[in-house]
């Protein structure tokens, strides 16, 4: 029987762990405040008071904000952009990366150079806006999807991951009569599930949190994403949109601060709920993609 000696903690370890714990607690305070205020009963809410726990629990703010047309429109817009954008991201990224792994591909070095070039240089905001305008995508959900179908970083990491697969698997599939598309769908995709799960989370979080592109490309308030609506609620003094359709249209029924915090919680909740289920695949996919450079 073998015994593993436990590492003796030094003074540096104690100080390091204490500082990390303190920083973690400080980082948690804003989330605790947002959570507490969002569940605080409007009748006992006191402005500018720090709430560690609600004095009286209530779902009034959530009921109010879920009854507004502006929040429902923003939620639908964000869900559409996230679902469609993530699916297209996965299709384009993995198919393009798979093509780049083929050393016999004509013009492969030129394609790789073009991908790396976009990693170093960016056209800028103004040319991107003019391009979207010329394509007629302004005020369209596709203006938030097409420009971000893939990225150089995603392609290079996925390419590295795909190159770690044994080439004998593809050769045996071709001997059995598989076409290139068949090899990709029946061999490569099943073996790439950890990476797909990891990048699905990357792409979904990116689309769910899309803000700047939605701010400059979408001027119709009915097509705003959640992040733009929350910016309007938190920063703009008039809380555009939410006060227009609530319980009787009177936004004094529920304090604006509790409405803002409830909107922030609702925007964070889907990602917080999905992430734990993908954590295992997420970590595995990132590690496998970084083994071979």
TrEMBL record:
Keywords: Cell membrane, Membrane, Transmembrane, Transmembrane helix, Transport
Domain ABC transmembrane type-1: 75-277
Lineage start: Bacteria, Bacillati, Bacillota, Bacilli, Bacillales
Keyword Ribosomal protein: no
Family as reported in the entry's similarity comment: Belongs to the binding-protein-dependent transport system permease family.
Superkingdom of the source species: Bacteria
Its membrane topology: Multi-pass membrane protein
UniProt protein name: Carbohydrate ABC transporter permease
Transmembrane segments: 12-35, 79-99, 111-132, 183-205, 259-278
Pfam families, alphabetized: BPD_transp_1
CDD domains, per the entry: TM_PBP2
InterPro entries membership: MetI-like, MetI-like_sf
Protein's cellular compartments: Cell membrane
Transport listed as a keyword: yes
SUPFAM superfamilies reported for this sequence: MetI-like
